[in-house]
Specification:
372 residues, alpha/beta
């Protein structure tokens, strides 16, 4: 059932409008995907996500493997039924979480041995195990198992890592027991080294994955460096396959990714900063917990038409956040996700009308970003 088609290409940039078809529905691209790490987008119900037009969400293989376990979710009928979400789901490979464990993991050719952050028990993930878990979860889009190297990283280490990631990608593809209903994306690595990115892309494209993720970016490098790597790497990938920049969620990173030909992006940022009392607004981030909003009876964002901005004030949300009421995090999460999803909808409309750069520049001026 998986299919991707390019509907329109922007005249001034590499941006394009597209449509992904899956067993659980269609996805209009470019798209931002809310992250539901543990089978839930934090504080949000599936019904609320539908209301704000979330087209696809993410599940995390590493966390769901540890709790409640992929076999239990399989018995429930898969992740869609388990969490009552009937739209598309993408699962990551678990690689990023495993490799962020530092001294708690050991990388070998066969896979990665690590200690559970829950109880310290010894666990093992390999390309075959990662795909086994994702097959059990029943996601519409799966990721090949890879190593995401940190920034900065030495050339020799990244070279060896890319070579292993390529071998793991081949093993991941062979391990997929449900290729007719679960698309598998390869992940291009290579750090900040163009020759390694070129080699990684060539090897993965030769394997003919259903889509391609660009990994190892947004890991601490400057935005200018990410843009350079995106510009270079996107040109190495097939035009008829979706491109996914993993882990980007600020408005500028989303705009710059789309401009360089990215179709999909995700990040925990909108819900994470919400739990810390921060709203994303038309005029920049607003830390609503600050004292100056104590008697501010206006909406979070005067230009936003979401449920939260129509019904609640900064003063009330500040009160909720400062007394640790869960509703505060819920309202901010709702608004932040709505803001980014609406922004992406407007980006799609701008591409359709050949006004993407104008829309970006106008958005940046209001938000407080520099317009280059």
């Amino acid at each position: 059932m998986f299919k991707f088609e390019v509907i329109k290409e922007d005249k001034e940039t590499k941006a394009r409008l597209g449509k992904i078809t899956t067993d659980h529905g269609e996805i209009e691209t470019p798209i931002f995907m809310p992250v539901g790490t543990k089978a839930t987008v934090k504080t949000m119900t599936p019904e609320e996500l539908e209301k704000i037009h979330a087209q696809i969400i993410l599940g995390n293989t590493y966390h769901l493997f540890l709790r409640p376990g992929h076999e239990l979710i399989k018995k429930a009928g898969g992740l869609h039924k388990f969490m009552n979400w009937d739209r598309p789901i993408l699962t990551d490979s678990g690689g990023f979480q495993v490799f962020s464990l530092g001294d708690m993991r050991k990388i070998e050719e066969e896979g990665v041995t690590f200690r559970s952050f829950i109880d310290g028990s010894k666990q093992f993930l390999s390309p075959e195990k990662s795909i086994e878990i994702q097959n059990a979860l029943g996601s519409d889009i799966m990721m090949a198992f890879d190593e995401c190297v940190s920034y900065p990283a030495e050339y020799d280490y990244v070279k060896k890592s890319v070579e292993m990631t390529t071998r793991w990608a081949e093993r991941s593809k062979l391990a997929n027991k449900n290729p007719d209903h679960q698309a598998l994306f390869g992940i291009v690595q290579g750090g900040m080294y163009k020759d390694l990115r070129e080699k990684s892309a060539a090897d993965l494209v030769a394997m003919d994955f259903e889509g391609y993720s660009i990994g190892g970016l947004s890991v601490g490098e400057p935005l200018s460096m990410m843009n350079e790597m995106l510009d270079f790497t996107v040109d190495l990938l097939p035009k008829d396959k979706p491109r996914y920049n993993m882990g980007v969620g600020t408005p500028d990173y989303l705009f710059e990714s789309v401009i360089r030909g990215i179709d999909m992006a995700d990040c925990v940022l909108p819900t994470r900063i919400a739990r810390n009392g921060t709203a994303i607004t038309t005029y920049g981030n607003l830390v609503v917990r600050n004292a100056k909003y104590k008697e501010d009876f206006t909406p979070l964002d005067h230009e936003c038409d979401c449920y939260v901005c129509k019904n609640y004030t900064r003063a009330y949300i500040r009160h909720l956040v400062n007394v640790d009421e869960i509703l505060g995090a819920r309202l901010l999460s709702y608004h932040n996700l709505y803001f980014l999803l609406k922004m992406m909808e407007n980006i799609r409309e701008a591409i359709k009308n050949d006004e993407l750069l104008k829309f970006r520049n106008d958005f940046y001026l209001k938000f407080g970003y520099n317009v280059e």
